[in-house]
């Protein structure tokens, strides 16, 4: 998808999702990041409607008999305002459930026609109804008591970028901006691009497969089942599950916890997707010149790779292969040993501070992958990238290397 600043065509970004999905928060982050006006359906219409409850409407405006009529009027106001804002500012971020619009048909046509000639890029926050209900209960908004009960919604029938509601607003904004073509510039003069290596070693989660939301979902379920603090995994990304469970469970229950989290993560694996460019980059590398190094178990790693359509290479180091996991250097040293090369002659691609620390301790050069943690947490990496599609493989008798793809050192215009 093209960003507004890369073309002369106006751009409107719609942020959709059920109540409690976090669309307003994401909309604010996106508007700030894009420098775009924010048009939120609730901000535009709710203050007026709330004042009409009582003097004009005996029932709340979200309840029958006026609910459908008011819904149409609210979206008419949003469309009219968006038409003026996009025509004058050239861009806007629109926030609303967009339930009818996502189904296609008349509501979608009315929205796109109102915004024309602007390009409309729809973002949809997806998640379980239980998650949204829990969030609504936590915010305590009076209008939520008048909403009908949630049911699992159908997938949007219109073109859209799906984003997991479990992610932080920063992680969500990163994925949307990348989909819009707002890429992070790469420093082409980084010394790591001038060196040949004997092998390239990739972390799996967050580097080859976008599994962050799946991990969060699985650990939240485990936290509820075993009474573990739910923020555990967010504060320890990249570390082996056994190390995390040992912090919060008696020694006699760690094995039970390991079986449970493995089952949860394997069951949720079909939801993960490929990180942009993973297939193409791996296909360009000789199988004897790269390996995968993950803190997950073999079952979890293979399930996620399979979901992303990636075939594991002969060298796959998992949590079951080492005594000490990341940030200890053992996993990367073992991968180098299995490939028959020195760790100092390896280039590692990692997304987590624990993984970067492990690679550094092993003597490897490191490319940091953005999208899981803030850039400031990966400062010890040699260079940062926002997708594997930003890198090109070079291979000859001197070794293998990764270099920026043409244009990768340019940000949004």
Automatic annotation (TrEMBL):
Positions of the UniProt region annotated as Disordered: 1-20, 136-166
Top-level division of the source organism's lineage: Bacteria
Hydrolase in keyword set: yes
Enzyme class: hydrolase
Presence of keyword Transferase: no
GO MF term (any one): sugar-phosphatase activity
Key words, A-Z: Hydrolase
Matching Pfam families: AAA_33, Hydrolase
Compositionally biased tracts (Low complexity): 150-159
EC number: 3.1.3.23
Protein name: Sugar-phosphatase
The species this protein was found in: Prauserella sediminis
